[in-house]
Amino acid sequence: LKVIGDVAGFAPELQTRIRAAEQSTQHNQAITLVVAANYGGQWDVVQAFKNWQATHPEVSASQLTQAKLAQHLSTAGMPDVDLLVRTGGERRISNFLLWQSAYAELYFVDVLWPDFDEVELRKALASYTQRTRRFGQTGEQINQQQTTQAG
Which residue from 9, 21, 51, 68 has the least number of CB within 10 angstroms? Predict the structure, then answer.
């Protein structure tokens, strides 16, 4: 279990329970459940910068790189988002995992979250498998890369 977000505003007992649950599950290998509570993507980036700066007080911010900042995000060590599913007919990501979703494939569905079942998940995954992941590259760059790999 990993809880991401600003839990400092929660009751002290809840904060203690969150830390205890995270510690007791930290060596589990099968799955990581990430719960976003009082979380915002903009908050996450600001906190990452503050954490980086606290860790490196003598280093100028001009030396900060994307890779170095990513190590201080609340999701450090986890893979970035590949597929972001937005339910309920909304067509926005609403400040959720902004950094981590930079190259995510977006899937919007009118179904409300409580009704998002295995059938809907399979539809989302089918849509995802039909896409070409470019990670910021143009179609021409991908074609050149494929030609180089084939040759």
Answer: 9
